């Protein structure tokens, strides 16, 4: 332990606390620089329909690529960005890039679904959130129909009444809303039915737990709740064929995970879309629209 005298007070801290504080400050500075220098890049992970094997959408996932420290994982920098408030600017960069990429894929006739973008609690509670989103959509000439926002239970349970009104204004624009990491936070079932939601994402932890009967029952229950509330279900973090089979038996329509694809950079995702289109044209020539 070190002790520093500051006036009449002694501040005690140990080496690991000190190290952590230094690391946080370093990342904060890297993020400030990274925002100026365009070091935040968007990757996309496909969401696939289990039954048809078709792409139904994708999730935009931020990557922080620094020249000096290499790639810093969202698990490391997002919590710090949440605390410093930098997540607001980072979130808008991600939304802007996602809109730009999706607009291009739509124009190229490669895609006509929704892109899901994660929205942090800090962004969600901005008084001018809807205006900010409108501006970014308009700038990229992307209709709101193509956007889905993923929010966590914690974000909306903080002030559920306020959350309902924010969600209504987003929903009124045609933006879809998903609950991310469902089951890991503290959702109230009483409120769940009042939120204007479209999708519920089952957290990877539950998918991983499906090796036991209790674990399977748990996912079964979550899917049933979602369907009773007329929500679409997406299972996250699906890596194995057995998980896919079980999820299909449990009536989960959509999956996202390494089984189909890791998150891809925009050019890789373009190739993925082209391969998908090629496969669909071969499978269902009768559905081809002649323009
Ligand atoms: P999330 O929104 O729940 O995203 C899913 C995470 O699971 C992603 O991690 C994805 O790469 C990972 N994943 C997907 N399939 C698999 C799989 O089969 N196996 C394994 N092991 N992992 C899989 P990622 O990209 O590291 O992001 C972590 C979290 O950081 C996200 O969790 C989200 O909460 C946050 N995040 C990422 N991008 C953004 C963003 O643009 N804004 C905000 N606010 N948060 C973001
Ligand atoms: Mg997400
Ligand atoms: Mg998730
Ligand atoms: Mg997560």
Automatic annotation (TrEMBL):
<feature type="domain" description="EAL">
    <location>
        <begin position="24"/>
        <end position="277"/>
    </location>
</feature>
<protein>
    <recommendedName>
        <fullName>GGDEF domain-containing protein</fullName>
    </recommendedName>
</protein>
């Amino acid at each position: 332990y070190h002790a520093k005298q500051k006036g009449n007070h002694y501040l005690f801290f140990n080496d690991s606390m000190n190290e952590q504080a230094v690391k946080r400050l370093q990342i904060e500075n890297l993020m400030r620089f990274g925002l100026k220098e365009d070091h935040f890049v968007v990757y996309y992970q496909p969401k696939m329909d289990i039954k048809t094997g078709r792409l139904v959408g994708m999730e935009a996932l931020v990557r922080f690529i620094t020249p000096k420290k290499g790639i810093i994982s969202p698990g490391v920098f997002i919590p710090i960005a949440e605390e410093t408030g930098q997540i607001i600017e980072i979130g808008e960069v991600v939304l802007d890039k996602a809109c730009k990429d999706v607009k291009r894929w739509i124009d190229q006739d490669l895609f006509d679904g929704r892109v899901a973008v994660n929205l942090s609690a800090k962004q969600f509670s901005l008084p001018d959130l809807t205006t900010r989103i409108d501006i970014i959509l308009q700038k990229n000439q992307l209709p709101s129909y193509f956007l889905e926002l993923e929010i966590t239970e914690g974000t909306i349970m903080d002030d559920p009444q306020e959350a309902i009104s924010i969600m209504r204004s987003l929903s009124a624009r045609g933006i879809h809303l998903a609950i991310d990491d469902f089951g890991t936070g503290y959702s109230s079932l009483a409120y769940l039915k009042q939120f204007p939601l479209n999708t519920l994402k089952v957290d990877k932890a539950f998918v991983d737990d499906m090796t036991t009967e209790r674990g399977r029952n748990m996912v079964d229950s979550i899917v049933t709740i979602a369907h009773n509330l007329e929500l679409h279900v997406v299972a996250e973090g699906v890596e194995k064929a057995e998980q896919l089979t079980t999820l299909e038996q449990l009536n989960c329509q959509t999956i996202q995970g390494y089984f189909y694809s890791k998150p891809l950079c925009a050019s890789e995702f373009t190739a993925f879309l082209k391969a998908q289109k090629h496969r669909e044209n071969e499978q269902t020539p009768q559905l081809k629209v002649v323009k």
